[in-house]
Amino acid sequence: MKALIRIVTVLTAALMFCALTGCMGITSTYDHADEYTSGGREISGEVTALDIDWSAGSVSVSAYDGSTVSIAETCSDDLSEDQKVHTWLDGTVLRVRYCRSGETFMMSSPDKKLEIKVPRSAKLRSIDHNGSSTDTDFSSMTAESIKVDLSSGEARLKDCSAKIFELDSSSGDITLDQKGESEKIKAEASSGKIKITAETVGELKLDTSSGDKEISVQKADHILSDSSSGSTELRLGTMPADMSIEASSGDVTLYIPADADFKGVIDTSSGDISFDLPLSNSGDTYTCGSGTNSLNIETSSGDISLRKA
User: b/e for 250-262, b at 16 or more Cβ within 10 A?
Assistant: First the structure.
């Protein structure tokens, strides 16, 4: 069973001390604490999944040409054994934790940097990363499922492949450079920009509360985009079977193939609609070509532009 992780701010004398000095108190608690090893290490055993929980600082995960999984950590302050990264190879699942379970330590600006290197030959079932205040970089990683959930921090994934991507940042940008074919890409940012470059994806789902979207995808079957505040720009190599875009406040710009074939509602309550494609319309319903695919765009306040790719 997946370990339960709780990252809490110290609420007693430590918090009062931190309020006066500007430092931060971090406590990490998790199950099976006695199974974990302190400090960086090399793992030669089979690893099929990564389970990472990091409280503050940065996390880097990359593929390399070595034969072992390498875990290394640097920090701006000297660390005790309890404060160092703790890891446990639970069967074939590598669990990585910020420090010893129950440990609390004070730092004016925690800058623990975690670096994990995984052999390119590794067959990973999943990569699951949870971060509280953490910038995250994945490079050339391949897994069946890649999930990143950040409370605060940027998520940057370059040259990564997975059947399923689930990316969430409450406060921070999300950048994904997807390779190959994915069944689903889901990206959600409460306050931050989403930028995705993708090759082939079955379902692409995007959600922002406050932030722009910049998307370029060669082929997608289904696209769903929702935003409360922020502009949306999509560049499409082929026309999806169905696409729905909703924006409360923000411009929507689509770059689509000149031979695009679609029919649907395009409407803005306050804004202009412009296009350089051969569209016909009856009220808010627009048709391009024979109208095979479905396209619906609705904005409350913002311009809608359809342009040739």
Answer: bbbbbebeeebeb
